[in-house]
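Mods, move this if it's the wrong board.
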Amino acid sequence: MDPTKLSLPSDANASGRDLGDEELEMLREVIRSGHLSSTNGAAVPALEKEFAAHHGVPHAVAVSSGSGAVQTAVACLDPSPGDEIITTSITDMGAIAAILYQGAIPIFADVDPRTCNVTCDAIERRLSKHTRAIVVTHLFGNPCDMDPIVELAKRHGLPIIEDCAQAFLSTYKGRLVGTLGDIGCFSFQQGKHMTSGEGGMVLTRDKDLARRAFLFVNKAWGYGDATPDHYFLAPNFRLTELQGAVLRAQLRKLESVVARRRASARKMDELLRDLTVAEPPSTTPNGTHVYWKYCLRMNPERLSVDVQAFGNFLKARGVFCVPRYIQKPAFECQVIRDRVTFGKSRWPWEGAHMAGRDPVEYRRDDYPGTYEALARAMVLPWNERYEDEHLSGIAAVLHDAEKALRKGAL
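Not the wrong board. Structure tokens:
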């Protein structure tokens, strides 16, 4: 191993994850029971009840992935083909595919270039008579500015889906994300604040939405009904009892995991206070940031090379980072750009349901905040296992990069 490289805990393995005896004991209970499917097990129902209680809402439905959580949320609203759902231009493709699979068209709103979060003004500019819902993503663990978005949605009678995959226990004006809109969606993928490798959760206060979500993840089969049937088209998105067991233990550690990530971020902010080439992550006023990742905002005025070259310097010294976060806005990805969905149909952008409507177009000029945000983003790895030595090491590499820039050696 190169002695000049940092050795950092990683959320890809045990070095950066809070996993241990508690998860093993709960797994043993499930294995001993012999019930590995949640249709007749106890772990997943218990997890749903505990997760809902943790957020102060009555209903939670576990699903097989974070993408599945967003698709379940969209399905709860039962859009018709061609209905438009406004979402952010900076998000994971899984959250966009979820919209397409339910026959709706994603309409992208621009973001605040400082936070990378979607804004109310940008959403309002995308409203049309075909708008069915709004999806907000609390990116990197920082909540969106929700009050104006909620007010806008109420004014137009539109439900809000919150994508909280990166924002466990983040708050806005004292309220937990996932409880501010109509439906909250969470991911338990490997790198999230709590994990079972994959998995997700849907939260809601609305019993009818909860019922629809329960049915959707169970092939729309009415378990427990007097005369059950498959009531509508739906997949099997169930979480297993094995995952449920791990997640019950993880949920009990969540407060500590988030607290440690936040404490480390505050220390890093201080270590970087005199760095001029980049700024620490911004936090929405009245919000709490929970740091899924630590996203620096590069200052192009101080940067004589592109962000990718700066990132290569960090990686060469053991700080695995992701310049730009995503290489291009979602609407420039091939699946969206070329309408590669179901065969050659280009559905849902094309079809009889679109007769008489102008085609949906995504124009670069409509997204200045998006391009600025991506050009400046430098996403640093983050997890609950960072100690002071790791933080000082990362800070030292960043300061070395700035010195190399000044010397023209980067």
